[in-house]
Amino acid sequence: MQQRLEKEWDLSIDPDTVRLFVLKAKALSAAVNEDYDDGAEHEVEFDGDRHACHHHDGLVEEASENLTEEEFRELINDLNIDEAAELIALAWVGRGDYDASEWADAVAAAKDRPRKRTAKYLLGLPMLADWLEEGLEAIGA
């Protein structure tokens, strides 16, 4: 009985790869939260002299944040159909949309989603990192 249960949770996507996505999602979330915390720092203020050249000190930081999102998108786009569906299904299980016992249904529903929008969809999930971690834990991976 134990072998059958382990086989049921056999993933196409390596759990370590999912954990990499968790780290990337946390980094992206932290970058967004920092922008909200000190949002005034990024605003451009004019003091009447509109011809003055404005130097934005945060451009290097912003470029690295965008690079993280770009890297996240590339990693998602590099996944095959099964891996991408399992990543979405893990988020859904972690969020509570599906129970771990409904894993096959979650993966099937994720495969029905448009493949081209996977990265955008996952980036739009506000608690992606937490839900992926909880999904891994729920299926015992």
From TrEMBL:
Source organism superkingdom: Bacteria
Pfam families: DUF3775 (PF12616)
InterPro entries attached to this UniProt entry: DUF3775
Protein name per its UniProtKB record: DUF3775 domain-containing protein
